[in-house]
Amino acid sequence: MPAAPFNITTIYFLPLLTAFFIFQQSHARPRAPNSLVLGLTQSRNILPTPKLPLNSVRKPSETFDMLEPLREVRDGYLISLNLGKPKQVIQVYMDTGSDLTWVPCGNLSFDCIDCDDYRNNKLMASFSPSYSSSSFRDSCASPFCINIHSSDNSFDPCTVAGCSLNTLLKDIWTCTRPCPSFAYTYGEGVVAGTLTRDTLIVHGSTPNITREIPKFCFGCVSSTYREPIGIAGFGKGPLSLPSQLGFIQKGFSHCFLAFKFANNPNISSPLVIGDLAISSKDLLQFTPMLKCPMYPNYYYIGLEAITVGNISATEVPLSLREFDALGNGGMLIDSGTTYTHLPEPFYSQLLLVLQSIISYPRANEVEARTGFDLCYRVPCPNNTFADDVLPSITFHFLNNVSLVLPSGNHFYAMNAPNNSSVVKCFLFQSMDGADYGPAGVFGSFQQQNVEVVYDLEKERIGFQPMDCASAAVSQGLHKT
Ligand SMILES: *[C@@H]1O[C@H](CO)[C@@H](O)[C@H](O)[C@H]1NC(C)=O
Ligand SMILES: *[C@@H]1O[C@H](CO)[C@@H](O)[C@H](O)[C@H]1NC(C)=O
Ligand SMILES: *[C@@H]1O[C@H](CO)[C@@H](O)[C@H](O)[C@H]1NC(C)=O
Ligand SMILES: *[C@@H]1O[C@H](CO)[C@@H](O)[C@H](O)[C@H]1NC(C)=O
Ligand SMILES: *[C@@H]1O[C@H](CO)[C@@H](O)[C@H](O)[C@H]1NC(C)=O
Ligand SMILES: *[C@@H]1O[C@H](CO)[C@@H](O)[C@H](O)[C@H]1NC(C)=O
Ligand SMILES: *[C@@H]1O[C@H](CO)[C@@H](O)[C@H](O)[C@H]1NC(C)=O
Ligand SMILES: *[C@@H]1O[C@H](CO)[C@@H](O)[C@H](O)[C@H]1NC(C)=O
């Protein structure tokens, strides 16, 4: 967490100061930590996932729903994992773009390489298996062990040592050895460790109800490259948190608080898991989840058009709603990527459309400093924020679903108003290397103040603009 501006008394300045961290973060090159954006060029889960033995997935009772508070930081949303006996609390990113849940493990031995950019987050907490009476290492007969070694990931120690998936599969019923160490790749990062099982305590949707999930399987990670904080995987694969808890045929929903609440300890974004997340949602517009042959465990949606302000919708390339023969294309919806990424040349065309209708002066020096491509100095009478003077952006997804991005999700104030003006930057980015993997990514910054419902039963994703701060208050996630 960046040095938090808690000494500032009015909430009014909080967004301005926290915005500062965005451009620090983006100084060298805008990037999305924990994202798949670049990493899809390093394959994972390429091989078909072996089917789990039927009895391996625990199903909590049908009526148990979860409500977990998510803490907002500058580049994502953190979930607190209560692991072990006695419980150790570790905060990790909530990531719909991956499956594995992992925590930094062993406070003496955890080693994060090239993490200087992230260290100032000061979020590092590690899990010590030796202090937990219920911790044990997963065995090589575990379906999770097969799953994590089933990608053709060249960093995988098992692959390096020549222990092929076939070797593991051959003695799946008789093997008693520990599961071999794994390596798991992300956008720019890699994590390496061992699969561990321990008790996970989760929160029910009614106050003060918790539930113990015994033998939850996660990565006990001893070394990483550019991944200083753990991750909770919310993908569709067997290792993911919703899968292991028996919710993969149901769903989950989240309502991400606006960026002005980043690092505010008094309010959290609601994450609901279970029936409650998907029932009584008939008012929402739903777009189908697309089946990506290359990455079947992640969530893809189809983007048809984008409307800027009140001018007619701009068609987007087919690649944002269709896959090629290899499975490249589609739009990934990913809470682990901060900003929305669009492919070239469409991204540049969108910038031109914006430039053609916005007549405010460009703030070139802010563009140079932050790496964002379009920043404007917009009037701000008396240095107070007025209604948004910049055009709205509407996404049109498959099935006639229109989502007008809430104000503050597309252009964001990068500094305090000064001399009756404020610099706002367009927080979208160009997709690098979009010819492999997804063509675009719908990132968490653009999902703020929207209820996003992952209806896994009906394989669809619903959107509804919502004041997530009010939602947090009504769900008891606001300290008074
Ligand atoms: C390791 O972590 C445990 C629990 O968090 C703590 O009690 C212990 O002092 C730590 N050891 C070192 C060397 O930091
Ligand atoms: C939950 O627990 C807290 C403290 O333990 C208590 O003050 C509160 O009344 C409880 N709430 C409910 C609904 O039981
Ligand atoms: C959080 O609440 C405490 C106690 O009410 C208050 O002193 C503090 O300023 C609040 N922090 C923020 C960032 O709103
Ligand atoms: C579009 O919006 C602008 C102001 O934002 C307005 O002047 C113009 O009349 C609108 N055009 C249409 C066709 O509604
Ligand atoms: C700015 O402040 C002045 C004096 O306080 C006031 O007369 C004026 O209406 C304000 N303008 C806006 C746009 O709020
Ligand atoms: C799409 O939705 C709009 C309103 O959002 C509606 O006017 C239009 O008729 C719908 N089109 C179809 C084909 O359902
Ligand atoms: C306001 O902007 C002027 C130049 O436009 C600059 O010199 C000054 O430092 C800025 N003040 C603040 C508080 O940022
Ligand atoms: C403030 O804005 C006015 C009008 O845009 C400009 O003339 C003046 O130079 C600006 N002052 C500073 C310090 O930037």
Automatic annotation (TrEMBL):
Domain Peptidase A1 stretches: 77-464
Keyword Protease: yes
InterPro entries: Pepsin-like_plant (IPR034161), PEPTIDASE_A1 (IPR033121), Peptidase_aspartic_dom_sf (IPR021109), Plant_Aspart_Prot_A1 (IPR051708), TAXi_C (IPR032799), TAXi_N (IPR032861)
GO MF entries: aspartic-type endopeptidase activity
Pfam families, sorted: TAXi_C, TAXi_N
GO biological-process terms attached to the record: proteolysis
Key words, A-Z: Aspartyl protease, Glycoprotein, Hydrolase, Protease, Signal
Domain of life: Eukaryota
Ligase is among the record's keywords: no
Listed PROSITE patterns: PEPTIDASE_A1 (PS51767)
Residues spanning the signal sequence: 1-28
Family: Belongs to the peptidase A1 family.
Protein name per UniProt: Peptidase A1 domain-containing protein
